[in-house]
Write a structure and sequence with these properties.
The chain is α+β, with helices and mostly antiparallel strands and 447 residues long. The chain contains 14 helices and 13 strands. Strand 9 and strand 10 form a beta hairpin.
Length: 447
């Protein structure tokens, strides 16, 4: 580690094995992860790539903890604004510098504190502020703290959840993403620490405090107010759970599972929040789609508050080389031969306003013609595999809802989603008659 930068009057190199009191979980966790970024090339490449920062093999990373800026103003000193860490990435003559502020357990970072750190970063010409907490964000560029747009005009603001960091470590290890054996050992030790109860790192495990009231209001057909805290908090909690589902599925599949977002929602978290609140107040259901690499379709998740049901589904285009709905259904049933049928259904959709049919998987195995329509001769153009979980009264339980959801999504994917293959048209063929005709024409020309 190089000498401390000139613009710091205090700070210690990040230690992989920090010597700190047992009560200093925050300090220890930050030190471990920053030292890990400095020690394991692939980890810093993976984490900084999520911020759009490329790390070449020749780049060097410095990591400091408990930093104190030189010439700090009196207000910052009075407020004891001491950032938890600092990263300095050097690529040739270029430097990229980021201030780190972290919290563990249920502690969160407020708007006032984030604003002060952004100002500190601006004053000292840093490029970014990265916050690390147990709060989730759809993307590292989506921050859980709402700030005016001009607040991040000159300094970028990013957010990593501890669960996101843990998942990146797991993916690198599961996919043999780290070449050096010593670095594999270090990464295993970092992961062991992050998975320990003593680290203060948790995953999202319950909906917001108003969840039960919101479910009961929907059940009694009461009006939902878009601007109310209960609705805003419900959508915010759902956004956190969406991210948690991605992390859970990433860990289980060993591949990167991401949230499918519209482009304007990806770029503007405030618009995403507003649109989702509007949609929820019109139709009280929570929805998201997970993009799983190489899967046949997006995994769609819906929590219907009116019916108190959870639905997981994947939608495939029906094979065009088969003419009837029955034949197209058999094509899908062959893919689901190993699926345990309890709770599984298949929905057939037809063009325009033609009837949609919906039948249990177990019945269709014996009688695939059940998916035919009594009112339309049109063959199904889309076949959707659906898994239903009826929670009834348990739906309003803050923890039970999350537990059941986090069981349902992996179960659906394991039993059905990972078995599905999209239909692709067969390649064009050359008929024997065409070949003979060409040979005859060539022979005639030669004569």
């Amino acid at each position: 580690m190089k000498n401390r930068p000139d613009f710091l009057s205090g700070g210690e190199p990040a230690r992989l094995i920090p010597i700190a009191a047992d009560s200093a979980r925050e300090q220890k966790s930050v030190s471990v992860i920053l030292a890990g970024l400095r020690s394991v090339l692939e980890l810093r490449q993976s984490m900084l790539k999520s911020l759009g920062v490329r790390v070449g093999t020749n780049a060097t990373l410095e990591a400091w903890t408990e930093v104190v800026f030189a010439n700090e103003d009196k207000k910052a000193a009075k407020l004891k604004d001491r950032p938890d860490g600092l990263l300095i990435l050097r690529t040739g003559r270029r430097e990229w510098r980021a201030l780190i502020e972290a919290k563990v357990n249920n502690d969160t970072i407020g708007e006032e504190q984030v604003s002060r750190y952004l100002q500190q970063a601006k004053t000292h010409k840093l490029d970014a502020v990265i916050t690390i907490t147990n709060q989730f964000a759809a993307l590292p560029t989506h921050h859980p703290v709402k700030l005016p747009k001009n607040a991040t005009k000159s300094v970028a603001l990013y957010h990593w959840s501890w669960a996101f960091i843990r998942t990146q470590c797991q993916l690198l290890l599961k996919n043999d993403g780290v070449e050096d054996e010593d670095q594999v050992f270090i990464l295993n030790e970092i992961l062991r620490y992050l998975e320990s109860d003593r680290s203060g790192i948790s995953h999202f495990d319950q909906m917001n405090a108003e969840w039960k009231d919101v479910v009961n209001k929907v059940k009694s057909n009461a009006t939902l107010a878009k601007t109310s805290d209960e609705i805003q908090n419900t959508i915010a909690a759902w956004h956190q759970e969406q991210r948690d589902l991605c992390l859970i599925m990433s860990r289980l599949t060993g591949s990167d599972v991401s949230l499918k977002l519209k482009n304007d929602h990806r770029l503007d978290p405030a618009k995403r929040m507003k649109d989702d609140v509007d949609a929820f107040c019109k139709t009280p259901a929570l929805q998201c789609a997970l993009n799983i690499i190489n899967a046949a379709a997006d995994l769609e998740v819906t929590a219907d508050l009116q019916r108190r049901m959870i639905y997981c589904s994947m939608r495939l285009a029906a094979p065009k080389d088969k003419q009837s709905t029955k034949a197209r259904t058999n094509w899908l049933l062959r893919q689901l031969k190993k699926t345990e049928p309890a709770g599984f259904f298949i929905r057939a959709t037809r063009p325009g306003k033609a009837e949609t049919t919906y039948q249990p998987l177990k019945d269709l195995r014996d009688s695939p013609e059940l998916l035919e329509s009594d009112t339309s001769n049109a063959a199904a153009t889309t076949l959707e595999v659906v898994y239903e979980v009826d929670l009834a009264g348990k739906f309003s339980g803050r923890k039970v809802f999350i537990e059941e959801l986090e069981k349902a999504v992996p179960h659906f994917y394991q039993e059905a989603g990972q078995l599905l293959k999209a239909w692709t048209p067969p390649p064009p063929k050359i008929s024997k008659s065409e070949t003979k005709l060409q040979t005859y024409e060539e022979e005639t020309m030669e004569q």
